[in-house]
């Protein structure tokens, strides 16, 4: 039996070693990730609750925001809880099946979120550039179809990358230099010359993502010129305030992912690599509630009404 076949057959688990094996750093990491995870859950659950119970938050924009929050809850829950437990218990092993499942779910939710962000940019384009036809363009059936297409595209995207990544033979050590199973770190363990298929998928995915991003930029250029024709300075500022956070988050989300997946030095466990991975896996689910929703006036009014109603029931 060859050494290559031996390694391929008996690599039944991986060792996630994203952070230095130091007790103080591990404890600090666990505490920080716990606070981030708690913040993300509270913010996103709040948005889901408000957009569900408040009848004034039933427009397409809030329908998309509700789905974005559901995605973010799932997205951050795939990686952060296990990373916290690994640090607290000092056990960093993950099974082969667990690693494949985590990889699929990360790419699935990331792909779904990116697709939904593109849909949300189209929603803003329709609302600002075609306000008279907005209700016809973004009717309930179209919104449901767009969200369904986003979830489906994420599922296909995740399946393709899992198939490409785990079609290789693993000949290296089972140490993954990351706090979760991701494609670049796993490909670093592959036998020489066997990762060309997945690299092709990565390049094709990045190109497609950039094309979608360019289309989104074009829609925002149209929005920009439409906003400039608004006579009221206050109206222009209000419209810009709803658009700029969206394009900022999409830019950070897309290009941090591209940098990670196209980086040459996969084997290094540098602080920069960890920081970039946090940019597209941890920060978006945590910051999206604040950027998209909790700054929104209607959302703030709904939250205030909900809190006032609860207080009045407790102290009639």
UniProtKB/TrEMBL annotation:
Residues that span the membrane, as ranges: 23-50, 62-81, 93-120, 141-160, 202-228, 240-262, 274-294
InterPro entries assigned to the protein according to its UniProt record, in alphabetical order: GPCR_Rhodpsn, GPCR_Rhodpsn_7TM, Olfact_rcpt, Olfactory_GPCR
Any one Gene Ontology molecular-function term assigned to this protein's record: G protein-coupled receptor activity
Cellular location(s): Cell membrane
Pfam short name (any one): 7tm_4
Domain G-protein coupled receptors family 1 profile: 43-292
One Gene Ontology cellular component: plasma membrane
Keywords: Cell membrane, G-protein coupled receptor, Membrane, Olfaction, Receptor, Sensory transduction, Transducer, Transmembrane, Transmembrane helix
Presence of keyword ATP-binding: no
Bilayer topology: Multi-pass membrane protein
Coiled coil: none
Family: Belongs to the G-protein coupled receptor 1 family.
Role noted for this protein: Odorant receptor.
Listed name of the protein: Olfactory receptor
